[in-house]
Amino acid sequence: MWPAPVVYLQHPKLRRLSWSNHMRAVVQRVSRSQVSVNGEITGQIGPGLLVLLGVGRDDTETDAIYLAEKIRGLRVFEDAQGKMNCSVQDVGGSVLAVSQFTLYGDVRRGKRPSFDAAAPPEKARQLYEFCVEQIRAAGLPCETGRFQEIMKVELVNEGPVTILLDSGKAF
């Protein structure tokens, strides 16, 4: 017996599924985090934000500036009243930025991800490093992983709090 047909739902106002090709980040509030390559710790922070950063093929420095500003000002830390009202800068935290092209994995057609929308390595490295520079220029301590390496990322997600960012404001 054949399986039931798959039906793809779309928003009634959209003509077709749209594809966001803007710089993306997964931001997690952590009590601590570290990244290592071949057993060597390359970046380590205490309280702050772990940022998994993906660069798309059409991204520019404007996208990196937008994300760096958003990361710096993201109010996901609690104030004295217990409300998420403080930024990483307000609480004296740090950022651990890890490049992750797999944020562009597209599985809309099948089960094997396509990474066609991810930037080529040279461009991705330049924009990833530019974004890190922008975070540091804002006065935030920012540790990093190693670009284009197999990394082990460890974290203790505080909350948990996980936020998705997209420089095109898709979400």
Strand portion: 25-35%
- Helical content class: 10-25%
Query: Helical stretch count?
Result: 2
Helix/strand/pairing category? alpha/beta
Q: Sheet with the most strands?
A: 6 strands, mixed
Q: What is the first-to-last residue Cα distance?
A: 40 Å
| Uncertain runs | 1-20
What is the average of the pLDDT values? Answer: 89
Number of strands: 8
Rg is 18 Å
Shape: globular
SSE order in H/E notation?
A: EEEHEEEHEE
Polypeptide structure, described:
By secondary structure, this protein is an alpha/beta fold. The protein is globular and about 45 Å long. The protein contains two helices and eight strands, in the order βββαβββαββ. Mean pLDDT is 89; it is low at 1-20. It starts with 23 loop residues before the first strand and ends in a 5-residue tail after the last strand. Strands 1, 2, 3, 6, 7 and 8 form a six-stranded mixed β-sheet that branches.
Short description:
With 171 residues, the protein is of the alpha/beta class.
Could you give the topology of this structure?
Elements: E1 24-37, E2 40-45, E3 48-54, H1 61-73, E4 77-78, E5 84-86, E6 94-99, H2 121-137, E7 142-144, E8 152-166
Parallel strand pairs: 3-6, 6-7
Antiparallel strand pairs: 1-2, 1-3, 1-8, 4-5
